[in-house]
Amino acid sequence: MAAPRPWTDTDDTTLRQLHAAGKSLHAIAGDLGRSKAVVSRYAKQAGLSWDRAVLVSQRRIDGSSSRARWRPAGSGCDYTRCPRRRTRQGGQS
């Protein structure tokens, strides 16, 4: 088994830039050619995180919606009345 490639200053700079650009842990790991575990470890050492509360507040600021990602484009499915969404209203399922 080959020795792991050492973490460089270039990797650290790229990690910080991609994190600031809003990239996900998975996307950054792919861009760097590293595992998510390695990227996560060095991000933690650098004081970076992918805190869901922060991400949600950023989505509210820029107007994007997490719901839009899960709804097929052009499906015409209103999230509140989607037949695939099960809700209980008035005791009905």
Written description of the protein model:
This protein is mainly α. It has a domain at 9-62: Arc Repressor Mutant, subunit A. The protein has five helices and no strands. The model has no long low-confidence stretch (mean pLDDT 75).
Summarize the biggest pleated sheet: none
What is the CATH C-level name of the domain at 9-62? Mainly Alpha
Using only C-alpha atoms, the radius of gyration works out to 19 Å
Q: Roughly what fraction of the amino acids lie in strands?
A: under 5%
Query: What is the mean pLDDT?
Result: 75
Question: Portion of residues in helices?
Answer: 40-55%
* Sheet/helix structural class: mainly alpha
Indicate the CATH topology of the domain at 9-62.
Arc Repressor Mutant, subunit A
Any low-confidence stretches, pLDDT <50, length ≥5?
Answer: none
Please give the alpha-carbon distance between the first and last residues: 55 Å
Instruction: Tell me the total number of β-strands.
Output: 0
Overall 3D geometry? globular
CATH architectural label of the domain at 9-62: Orthogonal Bundle
Order of helices and strands: HHHHH
Number of helical segments with 4 or more residues? 5
Secondary-structure topology with pairs:
Layout: H1 9-20, H2 25-32, H3 36-45, H4 52-62, H5 66-70
Provide keyphrases for this structure.
93 residues; mainly alpha; Arc Repressor Mutant, subunit A; 5 helices; globular
Quick description:
Helices cover 49% and strands 0% of the residues.
